Amino acid sequence: MRTDCPDRPHFRLPNGGEIVSRGHLACPGCGIMPAIRFAMKVLGRRTVIVAPACCYAVVDGPFPYSAAGVPFLHSAFEAAASFASGVRAGLDTTGVADVTVLAWAGDGGTFDIGLQSLSAAAERNENMIYVCYDNEAYMNTGIQRSSATPRGAWTTTTPKGATKTERKKDLGAIMAAHRVPYFATATIAYLEDLTRKFAKARDLGGFRMLHLYAPCPTGWKADARHMVELSRLAVRTRVFPLYEVHDGTRFEVTLDPETAPLRDYLALQGRFAEMGDAGVAAMEDEIRDRWEILQRRAASSGRA
Question: How far is 235 from 301, CA to CA, in rounded Å?
Answer without folding.
Answer: 22
